[in-house]
Amino acid sequence: MDAPGRIWFGYIAAVGIAVIGLITLDPLAFGLAFAVLVATVLGEWYRGRQATLAAAAGAGGLAELVSRWARGWAYARGFPRPAAVPGGVRVEVGEPGRRVEWVATDAADTLAGLVDTVRATPEAWLSVVTDSPAGVRPWFVEGGLVASDAEEALMSIDLADHASRELPEGYRAEMERDGGVITVTVRSGEAAAAAGTIAVIGTDAVADRIRTDPDHRRRGLGGAVMSLLVAAAREAGAGHGLLVASEMGEPLYAGLGWRAEARLVTARSPAPHTSVESQHG
Fold it and tell me: What is the pLDDT of residue 29?
């Protein structure tokens, strides 16, 4: 029964019990009717409040989603908290060939300046979240950046809507918690077959580095890892999920209920050339 059905059932039950009380003159029936009515009203208020909070979490625009995802992504990987900049955030990644990364929207009034900044910064990356990757790539080319051919997806979900996937037979899961960072490792014997991390900040949970060993793919391990991570994140108080998916990973997440909010395209400063690939998931 959906929420409106439950609400109306509560009101009807309260009235029915009250009518019985009038017929039988039983004071217990009046007390029970009152209790059912109060419970129904409070339940309706609670569900309305939860819906309002969920809507507020998902509303706020693409720029806010970018900021929230970047903060959780940095937390999951142990990077310093991103710094707000015009158009997006700046993340101190500190990896070879990827010392610093700007993550931004495609707002024209800030994108040109970010392209210039990245071109002038050694080992810098620029990731742009957009509804039109084809419209962003010319900015990279004209700005002298080295663009990646890869295209990723910024995805989100209400964690209550996440599909559940069971761990296949022959595998066992281990869970570790470090503050708000939760890691699940699935093992076959002593070997790691799959793993993933989710970082909980407030009501947001940002999934990261969901991996399955090539020898264990197509067995449902990715979905099982995500289900375990999401269950743990909900226990920790999270209600809204965010992640950036590779082209290979996007169908997995879509099958679990995640929806694509926008695409993500990446470029880097022209020198030095590195073999590091664009990977945010």
Answer: 64
Both tokens assigned to 71 = 């903060």
Tokens of 19: 């009518």
Phi, psi of 267 (to 5 degrees): -140, 165
* Residue 107 C-alpha from the chain's centroid: 23
Fill in the amino acid letter for 83: A
User: Please, is 127 exposed, middle or buried when counting C-beta atoms within 10 Å of its C-beta (0-12, 13-18, 19+)?
Assistant: buried
- Characterize the bridge pairing of strands 240-245 and 146-158: antiparallel
Query: How far is C-alpha 198 from the chain's CA centre?
Result: 9
105: closest CA among 69, 81, 142? 69
Higher pLDDT, 31 or 100: 100
Q: Which DSSP string do the residues of 208-250 spell out, in sequence order?
A: EEEEE-GGG-SSSHHHHHHHHHHHHHHHTT--EEEEEE-TTTH
**Which candidate, 165, 185, 194, places its Cα nearest to that of 257?**
165
Kindly state the tokens that stand for 222: 């990715």
Q: Which contacts (CB < 8 Å, 24+ apart) does range 59-64 have?
A: 62/105, 62/129, 62/261, 62/262, 63/87, 63/88, 63/105, 63/107
Q: Report the 10 Å Cβ neighbour count for 45.
A: 10
**Beta-strand relationship, 240-245 and 204-212:** parallel
List, for residues 165-211, the tens digit of each pLDDT value: 999 999 999 999 999 999 999 999 999 999 999 999 999 999 999 99
pLDDT at 40 over 70: no
Q: How many CB atoms lie under 10 A from the CB of residue 172?
A: 11
Q: How far apart are CA 41 and CA 48, in angstroms?
A: 11
Under DSSP, is residue 137 helix (H, G, I), strand (E, B) or coil? Answer: helix
* Spatial separation of the C-alpha atoms in residues 44 and 116, rounded to whole Å: 53
**Cβ-contact 57, 69 below 8 angstroms:** no
Phi, psi of 56 (to 5 degrees): -65, -35
